Amino acid sequence: MAVVHALSHAHRFVPATGRDSPPLLLLHGTGGDENDLLPLGAALAPGAALLSPRGGVLENGMPRFFRRLAEGVFDEDDVRLQANRLADFVEDAREAYGIAAPVAVGFSNGANIAAATLLLRPRALSGTVLLRAMSPLKAPPPARLDGTRVLMLSGAFDPIVPAADVGGLAATLKADGAVVDHQTLPAAHGLTQADVQIAKAWLSAL
């Protein structure tokens, strides 16, 4: 049964039913909400606690985690603001629900805010699964990621995410000390069963 506390983001929380998996922070794509990725989270880490917030920014009525100026052009001031707000939310939720630092699982806009949070507030997360991510910041400050594990799954035929951009994000994370597993799948922007299988295996090995 999902629980909701009065924190900064509307969200759903599903308590853990097992002890082996770290909690997951589920971050939806544009137009999603706090319910969208709960089935994915349950499939990726059965029994894990699931924390799923709704993005606090609206674009034509669709929730997002930060503003953008055009397709693929981000409002970087808002990226920084919203990444810090999300990190604060995670800290409050950890206290409210008694959970450890979560592994973020983000899709599209959710992957981008997860990457930004990792770069700006690395202690908020214990790892990240970035599904169809782009670089959220052109010149992020140096971060001390100290072996934080990151799985990046890109689509070879993704019309939204340029290969050079996501390659730059992977290089930035590696330079900051993250252990990055970046795989490019024969897929477009949408998720495939291969994404689920790879991410599940990666999470089970943490």
TrEMBL record:
<protein>
    <submittedName>
        <fullName>Hydrolase</fullName>
    </submittedName>
</protein>
<feature type="domain" description="Phospholipase/carboxylesterase/thioesterase">
    <location>
        <begin position="24"/>
        <end position="204"/>
    </location>
</feature>
<dbReference type="Pfam" id="PF02230">
    <property type="entry name" value="Abhydrolase_2"/>
</dbReference>
<dbReference type="InterPro" id="IPR003140">
    <property type="entry name" value="PLipase/COase/thioEstase"/>
</dbReference>
<dbReference type="GO" id="GO:0016787">
    <property type="term" value="F:hydrolase activity"/>
</dbReference>
<dbReference type="InterPro" id="IPR029058">
    <property type="entry name" value="AB_hydrolase_fold"/>
</dbReference>
<keyword id="KW-0378">Hydrolase</keyword>
